[in-house]
């Protein structure tokens, strides 16, 4: 009896360890799926799209120029996202996008800087203000 309980406990422990290991891993998605999520009206889908985009950019893949144009158009709209979780992820993804595609973003730079300066003048959490300042320093 005690042996059976011990075995069940070990199995439960292994299941929890597996779940925690998989929780932090976001699978790399294909770009059309990411674009579909980013353009969704639901905040949870936008969040998934941003997580997918972060995964793609951090994996070393780059976006094609048409896909980059679509992402920058969506990012221009995301500056006004009302959900803090989405906006926080957006700023993180924006930093990665600038880092990976700095040579390809010249045409979007004026719009980007304008939106960032407008956001710095609004009432935001200090953590978000710090992220915006970090993005501005990346652009410099």
Kindly describe this structure.
- With 140 residues, the chain is mostly helical.
- The chain has seven helices and no strands.
- The protein has helices at residues 2-23, 31-38, 43-58, 65-78, 84-100, 109-120, 126-139.
- Helix 5 runs parallel beside helix 7.
- 19% of the residues are buried.
Summed up:
This protein has helices at residues 2-23, 31-38, 43-58, 65-78, 84-100, 109-120, 126-139. With 140 residues, the chain is mostly helical. Helix 2 runs antiparallel to helix 3.
Features:
about 140 residues, mainly alpha, about 0% strand, globular
> How much β-strand is present in the residues?
under 5%
Overall mean confidence score, pLDDT = 83
> Largest sheet, described in full?
none
The chain-level structural class is mainly alpha
Into which percent range does the helicity of residues fall? over 70%
Tell me the series of helices and strands, N- to C-terminal: HHHHHHH
How many whole angstroms does the radius of gyration measure?
Answer: 19 Å
- C-alpha end-to-end distance: 67 Å
Give the strand tally.
Answer: 0
- Low-confidence parts, pLDDT < 50 over ≥5 residues? 19-25
**CA-based shape:** globular
DSSP summary: helix tally:
7
């Amino acid at each position: 009896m005690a042996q059976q309980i011990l075995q069940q406990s070990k199995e439960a422990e292994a299941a929890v360890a597996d779940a925690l290991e998989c929780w932090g891993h976001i699978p790399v998605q294909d770009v059309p799926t990411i674009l579909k999520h980013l353009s969704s009206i639901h905040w949870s889908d936008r969040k998934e799209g941003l997580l997918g985009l972060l995964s793609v950019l951090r994996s070393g893949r780059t976006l094609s120029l048409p896909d980059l144009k679509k992402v920058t158009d969506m990012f221009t709209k995301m500056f006004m996202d009302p959900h803090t979780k989405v906006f926080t992820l957006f700023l993180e993804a924006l930093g990665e996008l600038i880092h990976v595609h700095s040579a390809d973003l010249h045409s979007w730079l004026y719009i980007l800087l304008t939106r960032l300066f407008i956001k710095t003048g609004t009432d935001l959490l200090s953590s978000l203000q710090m992220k915006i300042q970090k993005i501005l320093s990346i652009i410099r």
